Amino acid sequence: MTETVLIQDDELLIERLFDAPPELVFRVWTKPEHLMKWWGPKTFEPIGVEQDFRVGGAYRYGMKSEEGREVWKSGVYQEIVPNERIVMTFKWDDGAWDVDNLVTVTFQGLASGRTLFRFHQAPFKTIEARDSHTGGWNSLLDKLTAYLETVQ
Known about the structure:
Blueprint: E1 2-5, E2 12-18, H1 22-30, H2 32-38, E3 44-51, E4 58-65, E5 70-81, E6 85-92, E7 100-109, E8 115-122, H3 127-151
Antiparallel strand pairs: 1-2, 2-8, 3-4, 4-5, 5-6, 6-7, 7-8
């Protein structure tokens, strides 16, 4: 299941159902040794993870495109509930899309042992910026799905 829900013009909500328990999805989403194996949309490879994983701690993730262009995103963790929820600020270090917003990811355990994952990002200044992120995040989540199959 992949569902992108457009709530309003300035926000994005993506839901995924992962065939893995929330503890595993959370660990793979938060640990640098895992992030360095899958982070980024399909045409990007991870090149760096700097992270102080605590409320008030900063993070910075880098990736490189097939053409060799490096891009970095950064922010600060606002809330962390292990295996359940992460809230963090988000911006592109190069100022792309003039995005400076909030990302909330949730990991809801299901009776089947799977995880209902929700990704919410807002606000966006333009619909074009939101739609660009929709494609990038869905591609990244496709890579996460494939990676989870290797660490079960």
